[in-house]
């Protein structure tokens, strides 16, 4: 049997910051979470610094740049402010994503074909700064070709529509886009909406080398970690304090 090619996992830790922001305090700290993810084998850490700073903060980005031992992938909108932040902090990789203020999470792929000029400009600046650039795109031929024309190193295929509608048609679009991207020398990543079950068919798509996953991992962590957290508090109460 031929061994499957290694696929990398980058863990998106935005939700750790969301929990911290809910109380406006210091815990849980995404910097601490990133170290745990790496110790558990994560191949990279992903954060989205949104324009409204609703979860990840500039402080997180700066500290993670200093502490992440694998690769730090910064998701960000195509704006002058974000390009300046990225060029200042220099994460290993930037993934350009569309961003709308009212959305709960990133809703669609970046329309690279529809905004090739400004995207190419941003890609050029980031690459000149030594940053590897990926574009988050829907699995459509014209978007993959536009990503190549924009000078990106990589694409991240938006798997959200397939996760919502896991039929053969959506899977086919991902397979074809991944093959096309690989044929034009783009590194192929995938992400959004992936969980412990729906990732299975994507593991068989050879060109995909990296997955970006957040919500399902953090959701599982809350549930698998809850028992120990309650035991720890019971122990503190029983001992009259201290942990
Ligand atoms: N990739 C991109 C570009 C994203 O915006 C997100 C969500 O922040 C993810 C991957 C991870 O998606 P999920 O949290 O659904 O795993």
Please tell me about this protein's structure.
With 243 residues, the chain is an alpha/beta fold. It has a single domain (8-239), classed as TIM Barrel, CATH 3.20.20.70. It has helices at 14-23, 30-39, 58-67, 80-89, 116-128, 141-149, 160-164, 168-183, 215-239; strands at residues 8-12, 44-48, 72-76, 93-96, 132-137, 154-158, 187-191, 208-213. It has an eight-stranded parallel barrel, surrounded by seven helices. The radius of gyration is 19 Å and the shape is globular. The model has no long low-confidence stretch (mean pLDDT 95).
- For the record, what CATH class applies? Alpha Beta
Class inferred from helices and paired strands: alpha/beta
Amino-to-carboxy terminus distance: 49 Å
SSE string: EHHEHEHEHEHEHHEEH
Question: What is the overall pLDDT average?
Answer: 95
Q: Spell out which ligands are present.
A: pyridoxine-5'-phosphate
Tell me the CATH superfamily.
Answer: Aldolase class I
- Percentage of residues in DSSP E strands: 15-25%
Number of domains: 1
How many beta strands in the DSSP annotation? 8
Which fold name fills CATH's third level, the topology? TIM Barrel
The helicity comes to 40-55%
The DSSP helix count reads 9
Question: What coarse outline follows from CA principal-axis ratios?
Answer: globular
């Amino acid at each position: 049997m031929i061994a499957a090619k290694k696929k990398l996992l980058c863990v998106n830790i935005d939700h750790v910051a969301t929990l911290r922001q809910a109380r406006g305090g210091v815990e849980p700290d995404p910097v601490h979470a990133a170290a745990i993810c790496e110790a558990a084998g994560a191949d990279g850490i992903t954060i989205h610094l949104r324009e409204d700073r609703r979860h990840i903060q500039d402080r997180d980005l700066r500290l993670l740049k200093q502490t992440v031992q694998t690769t730090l992938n910064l998701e960000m909108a195509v704006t002058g402010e974000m390009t300046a932040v990225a060029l200042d902090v220099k994460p290993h990789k930037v993934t350009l994503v569309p961003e709308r203020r009212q959305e709960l999470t990133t809703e669609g792929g970046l329309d690279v074909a529809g905004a090739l000029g400004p995207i190419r400009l941003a890609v050029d600046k980031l690459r000149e700064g030594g940053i590897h650039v990926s574009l988050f795109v829907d699995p459509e031929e014209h978007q993959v070709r536009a990503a190549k024309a924009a000078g990106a190193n990589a694409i991240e295929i938006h798997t959200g529509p397939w996760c919502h509608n896991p039929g053969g048609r959506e899977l086919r679009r991902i397979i074809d886009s991944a093959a096309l991207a690989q044929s034009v020398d783009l590194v192929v990543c995938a992400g959004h909406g992936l969980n412990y079950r729906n990732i299975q068919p994507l593991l068989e798509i050879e060109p995909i080398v990296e997955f970006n996953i957040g919500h399902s991992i953090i959701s599982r962590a809350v549930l698998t970690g809850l028992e120990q957290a309650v035991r720890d508090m019971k122990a503190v109460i029983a001992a009259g304090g201290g942990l």
